[in-house]
Amino acid sequence: MKFEFMKARAKEFPIEKMAKVFEVSVNGYYTHLKRGITVREEENIRLKGLIEKIHQEGRRKYGSPRVHGKLKNAGIKCSKKRVAKLMRKEGLKAEMRKSWKVTTKQGKRKAAPNLVVQKFQIGIPNHTWVSDITYIKTKEGWLYLTAVIDLFSRKVVGLSMGERLDTSLIEKALKQALYHRAPPKGLIHHSDRGCQYTSEEFGKIARENGIILSMSSTGNCYDNAVAESFFHTLKTEHVHKNNFHTREEAKRSIFEYIEVFYNRQRAHSFLGYLSPAEFEENWNKQVI
Length: 288
Known about the structure:
Blueprint: H1 2-8, H2 15-22, H3 26-35, H4 39-57, H5 64-73, H6 80-90, E1 128-138, E2 141-150, E3 155-162, H7 167-181, E4 188-191, H8 200-208, E5 212-215, H9 225-237, H10 247-262, H11 276-287
Parallel strand pairs: 1-4, 4-5
Antiparallel strand pairs: 1-2, 2-3
């Protein structure tokens, strides 16, 4: 590192003076130049380029574990420690901010039993979906967002946003998911016990489509941890980095993040650092 610094600053400072400051020999410096770059150094240069590319494609939201996972999936062998060290040297890190959380109001109607019981690893698509509601702050007022996520691939299969927190918000998200996925009868839909999910209107849509409702136990956020985790990711990676002036601006931005980046590009640790779309595509190839 000292010799490389001296080489980079050779036109600015005398070699002899820099050698004295760094307590190295002038002969050692010139020997280093003659020796040239080592195989290890060449590999590091190549790795740095790949790491920077992955970090940029990940919208600067990837830390070393995700970058390493993407390299591994591309058939590039290197240790996690090496990736972390190179990223530190280049000043590359995940751009994150602490999230915040607001909970929905519990409904008065009788809630469905918990059929998921924190078993979030599902082996086939369209077997169990989870859903939740969150709040997005804009200068125009609150924007309410609900998402439906397939536990199999962690893909967001239904999405709805609006200025009112009512049952129509979650109905739209569910109908969108049903339209795009066409799940078989017996699909499990899991949520919290919010008044929107326990409403008669939502229950009717579920019955008409052969959906079995499942709901978390009272006050236990871990029962819907996958949905909670998704909202945490959405807010720390995207929402908190933007200052939305209007709800419409927030809608467009969040839709792009979820549909273009999260579903199709973002490396997910649970999926072996594949995106939800890549994970489903690989599964479909194996089934065929």
